[in-house]
Amino acid sequence: xxxxxxxxxxxxxxxxxxxxxxxxxxxxxxxxxxxxxxxxxxxxxxxxxxxxxxxxxxxxxxxxxxxxxxxxxxxxxxxxxxxxxxxxxxxxxxxxxxxxxxxxxxxxxxxxxxxxxxxxxxxxxxxxxxxxxxxxxxxxxxxxxxxxxxxxxxxxxxxxxxxxxxxxxxxxxxxxxxxxxxxxxxxxxxxxxxxxxxxxxxxxxxxxxxxxxxxxxxxxxxxxxxxxxxxxxxxxxxxxxxxxxxxxxxxxx
Length: 253
Ligand SMILES: Nc1ncnc2c1ncn2[C@@H]1O[C@H](COP(=O)(O)OP(=O)(O)O)[C@@H](O)[C@H]1O
Ligand SMILES: [Mg+2]
Description:
Blueprint: E1 3-12, E2 17-26, E3 31-35, H1 42-50, E4 55-64, E5 67-68, H2 74-80, E6 82-85, E7 92-96, H3 97-111, H4 119-132, E8 143-144, H5 150-164, E9 168-172, H6 180-193, E10 200-204, H7 209-213, E11 219-224, E12 227-232, H8 235-243, H9 246-251
Helix pairs in contact: 2-3, 3-5, 5-6
The site of adenosine-5'-diphosphate has 13 residues, from helix 1.
């Protein structure tokens, strides 16, 4: 098992109960999808897995590669291979994408006692991945998310995923704000990134478009009011598309 979440309860620092008993098991090679109405707790779950400090874990455990990571800082989780793309990426004027990514990679390498990546190596890699993503050459020298369009921010998140090559990636609404060409590009890149023996992805989304482009099967979960109230296969997406979430809200009052 890559990720095993058991009976996870988490509150915001001001005491609001957000996650109310999450159970989720993800194996290497699997794609899992979380859908659900706004304010259900999807981004909070992503943040809690990545180790954001804004939440108190009240109960439950998160095991990653059989280690309980609940008390690990975000950087240690990242060294272990967890990567979260943000729903709303932060703008950092003054820090270029390429320097940011280089520092991230080298910090992970350092934690693993590996040699630092050279500027030459990183540039070669960045060029290759930029062209996969149809990103123009100059893009990686821009300041992180500074003045980016919504779509550029999302492409930048995927660029980081490809550069860091994490074992477990959470894509929080990576498809929001992408035009149809960018969505196709991102889907193609995700398809090429997925490796049945090496990594897993958790996709948080409101739309089926991205899911329709995926080549691999996935397991879908509906998160509502802090709980996963239904899990299933692709067919569940059809039901949600047709019926919305009213039936779920009614049955889970
Ligand atoms: N740090 C926080 N402090 C207070 N409330 C929060 C915090 N983070 C999330 N919430 C609240 O928890 C609920 C779930 O938020 P979120 O996880 O962002 O939902 P989703 O991603 O499913 O739309 C919302 O009502 C949100 O306002
Ligand atoms: Mg969210």
